[in-house]
Give the backbone structure.
Amino acid sequence: MSKPMIGNAVQMHMHMRAFEEAYAAVLKPLCAELSMPQSALDILLFLANNPGYDTARDICFYRHMKPGIVSFHIDRLVGEGYLARKSDEKDRRVTHLAVTAAAAPVVARGRALQAALGKRLMEGLGNEDRTLFCRCIATISENAKRICVEERQKENL
């Protein structure tokens, strides 16, 4: 009898890495065509796909990117006209980022690639399996968040 596909943390990490590699492979031709590093495209798509998460801090936190890298790519994206900066009305220390109209074709193509990848990753799964998979991933994600909180609390003891 073979071992379950997802049985321990190492196997889960290996699966996540495979998803990340597939994502990079699918976006690579668009990045090459635009002469845009994948990190810059990731930032642009993150901002387009996640309204309300529009600061460099949000990008660093949710995309697990280093501040220096994020700042570098934001400067580039602003310079190329894909992003605009806007100061927060209540706190001038906060800068919001907005995807510009000039970025719309790139965002549309990136989203299409993301959707196509999602569809390809789900090939061979029926609706019931897809629903179960999504529920499992959501539960695993919530468990991971809880574990992080618990481990941070242990560090503070």
Observations:
- The first strand starts at residue 83 and ends at 87.
